[in-house]
UniProtKB/TrEMBL annotation:
Alphabetically ordered keywords of this record: Isomerase
Name of the protein in its database record: Sugar phosphate isomerase/epimerase
InterPro entries given in the database record: IolE/XylAMocC-like, Xyl_isomerase-like_sf, Xyl_isomerase-like_TIM-brl
One Pfam family recorded for the sequence: AP_endonuc_2
UniProt cross-references to SUPFAM superfamilies, sorted A to Z: Xylose isomerase-like
GO molecular function: isomerase activity
Domain Xylose isomerase-like TIM barrel: 24-281
């Protein structure tokens, strides 16, 4: 099954902050129709991260021929979740996820408490006919003990497959020293979204963050993650060295996988030019569609 190509709006976050509706129109003009949002202020904003009411956004998206196919919600709090889900249901979005707020995992007891929360969020989503998905970074490639399972494998083991699905970020798995294709195959029945970034050929860091950048045996805090993330280790998607066609091929038979979502954390170009360049480069791959 061909995967539809979407864009994570975090890629144009600065432009959205200045002009949300105008930026959406420009993203549509470039050719992206499927959007994943990123709301990192869910305590104060029930929306998708740039403070617009659901009814106005729904009309704007319809006029532009666009749709929201997912959204990161941070912080993920049960008491706030009903309002967030109300918002996304009005938009027609059927799934939400989380990304950065639950590391470091500290110990097994803490991990299990986080997994209990993920299951509860998944249950609240399921009651509304929606899905909850978990998004990884490279920290989930760590292990509590040498030779044991990775944190990611333990999250999957301690969550209900019918309640907690996967948004697999291939870039961050490569940066954790793990081949994401192995996890695509292992968890294909839970896979609903792929995040695709790219790594430049002449990057200033090794692709594996644990190869001298971060200590594999220590907790990776939010501050460590932020301070060691080099903007020059990102490039427009399809212009770098990651095996993107192999990733697409591996995910082609995952039963719930509909969208491969392009995301650019940092760029040396204007944001809209960057996503246009990614779109142009991404057309060379097989097994994808744009509308």
């Amino acid at each position: 099954m061909a995967m539809k190509v979407g864009i994570q709006l975090y890629s144009v976050r600065n432009a959205l902050a200045e002009d949300p509706y105008g930026t959406l129109a420009k993203v549509a003009d470039i050719g992206f129709k499927y959007l994943e949002a990123a709301n990192h202020d869910a305590d104060n904003d029930d929306g998708v991260g740039f403070g617009v009411p659901a009814d106005k956004l729904r009309k704007s998206l319809a006029d532009l021929g666009m749709s929201i196919v997912g959204s990161h919600i941070n912080p993920l709090k049960l008491e706030r979740l009903p309002a967030v889900l109300d918002y996304h249901q009005e938009l027609g979005n059927k799934q939400i996820g989380c990304d950065t707020e639950f590391y470091p995992y500290k110990d097994m007891d803490y991990l299990k408490r986080r997994c209990d929360l993920f299951n509860k969020v998944g249950e609240m989503c399921k009651e509304r006919g929606m899905r909850y998905y978990y998004h990884n970074h490279y920290m989930e490639c760590q292990r509590f003990e040498e030779g044991g399972p990775t944190i990611y494998e333990m999250v999957m083991e301690n969550t209900d497959p019918s309640l907690v699905f996967c948004e697999l970020d291939t870039y961050w798995f490569f940066r954790g020293g793990v081949n994401p294709i192995d996890y695509i195959k292992k968890y294909k029945d839970r896979l609903v979204l792929i995040h695709q970034k790219d790594f430049p050929e002449n990057a200033p860091q090794p692709i594996n963050m644990y190869d001298g950048i971060v200590d594999h045996g220590k907790e990776v805090t939010r501050e460590i993650f932020r301070d060691t993330k080099d903007p020059l280790c990102f490039t427009e998607i399809g212009t770098g060295i990651l095996p993107i066609q192999d990733i697409i091929n591996a995910a082609s038979d995952a039963p719930h996988q509909e969208y491969i979502v392009l995301e650019q954390d940092f760029t040396q170009l204007p944001e809209l030019e960057s996503i246009k360049r990614s779109m142009d480069a991404f057309h060379k791959f097989n097994g994808i569609e744009w509308a």
